[in-house]
Amino acid sequence: MKLKLKCYFPGEPPFITQITVEGNDIVESLLREFHKRLKEVDYDVPLRDLVLHKADVKIMPEVDLTDRVIQWLRIQPEAAELSVLHDIGDVFTEALPNDTLHIIVANAEIKELLDFVDDPQARSRIQIKKKLRKQFAKLSSSPSPSAVVRSADALAKFLNADGHPVCLDQVPAAMFSPPLAHLQRALAELGDLEVTEHDVSHASSFLSNTIMSYHNEDSRRNAIRQHVDHLIGEPGQWEERLDRVGNIQPDASWWQGEFPVAILELKNAPGIGGDPFVQSLADYSK
């Protein structure tokens, strides 16, 4: 006799699946199949930690299904846990309703929530701690901050890694850059500042291109050149050697007659040996 069992795991996020078994299969085979399906959707739950319960919880309404499952688990005695040695046909001797969960699966973390059924904030804190533990475990195995910033490839892998270990928005750049700190203070009082649609477009494009990773400074210079010229208000002298001021060769300069009013020196984010700002991001993630 085949049985179609609706199984539910009230994790974060919850997981539900239907498993077809034979009545003479033992509960252990059902447990192993459920664990296999959990792994297929990237749950990291050891098989030995899972416990099955025969349940009779209505599926609808779905909006509070997890809460009702937690409530149901709270009032179940330990004897309600299914022995892995029992035949499934001996556990389910009557017809199975289609609108009901037949099996509820729990582990130690789920049972920890049972003491906080009436305290959603406590349950939320437990779940946050769980996620943080997983995140810290990932970060502890990542390269050292100094290794991250030694090459553009390593930096790109770090910034775009699964789970996004570091986000540029989370670190206040003003902490590491006095000019940006000054800019932040200036932006707090815009006063009569007037900007055009073109100004906004170029500023947005400049920022977008600036935060990208480049393999060398030439690529970075080519990506931002037109936007820098526009924002300053006139084309600069790019990559020109300045004999009149010590034969230096900045990335760009802007002049008023015989006097330089702005000199630009680019620093590619990874740099040679690492850039302090990017390394601070790696330190922050660690």
TrEMBL record:
Keyword Hydrolase assigned to the entry: answer is no
The record's subcellular location field reads:
Host cell; Secreted
Q: Which residues form a coiled coil?
A: none
Query: Domain of life here?
Result: Eukaryota
- Protein name as annotated: Crinkler effector protein N-terminal domain-containing protein
Q: Does the keyword Secreted apply?
A: yes
Give the CC-aspect GO terms.
extracellular region; host cell
Pfam families cross-referenced by the UniProt entry: Crinkler
Q: Report domain Crinkler effector protein N-terminal positions.
A: 3-105
Q: Which UniProt keywords apply?
A: Secreted
> Where this protein primarily resides, as one coarse class?
host cell
